[in-house]
Amino acid sequence: MPFLELFDETLDINSTENYELSLQVSPDTLSFCILDTIRNKYILLRSFTADDNKYFNTSKLDELISKDDFLLKQYKKISIVMPSRRFTLVPGQLFDPGKRDEYFAFNHVPEEGELILSNKITDPEAYIIFSVSKPLYEVVTTRFPGVLPYHHTKPLMTHIKHSKNSVSGNYIHIHIEKEFFNLVIFSNDVLNFCNSFIYRNINDILYYVLNTFKNLEIKQEETIHLSGLTEKYDDLTSVFSIYVRSLKFSEASGNFTFSYVFNDTILHRYLNLFTAVNCE
Length: 280
Fold this sequence. Notes:
Nucleotidyltransferase, domain 5, globular, 5-stranded mixed beta sheet
């Protein structure tokens, strides 16, 4: 089981009432970070990842949470991110909480053992309707009662909301998870495209992205912003650099800094985790 841990020497397990906890939970990864709200600085990152081609079952995830010394503490604020490929957006003016399951069924076939949730976002003004594993949801909400999980596109959209302001024309963002990726495109500050795609290899990602560009008449002389499971000089960036003008790795930004222990970390991999504290 791959494990990552970074922590600043100022980290104090007895001072968590001054800290904010952000946790991301999925069948393949459990990651969390801690923000010291007095210094507005991230001081811990810890991540457990399932072995290649394997997944954590809910019992294992519950065990990881229950045995972690920091996850058992009380915090000033807790944010939980639950990535899920199955989601849809509903304009805020049309949203009816009583029809949440119906909205979801327009685009996805409901599956046994899943729960339909919703998050509100402000740019665009809409609701994210998404599914999560019911057993996993029960683990999370039992361990962290009263915390409504975020779909991963909520912090992703929060990041994009601010990043796109410095870009004229098209803002294009690709976020990579283990088995799927998100493609988000804003054109002149208006959401033009937002979808997720299952992929088996790098060529699948390239195909879906370039085909979307073609359908939306977007030229390949664009900058693509990347986050998630990709890094400089890997297969994905090597292939994409042939077809697009430039690639830019996105890093979380806001009213916070990072301890020096994060200097050599690929921060864009944890973009949604770090950005969760900015969500409203």
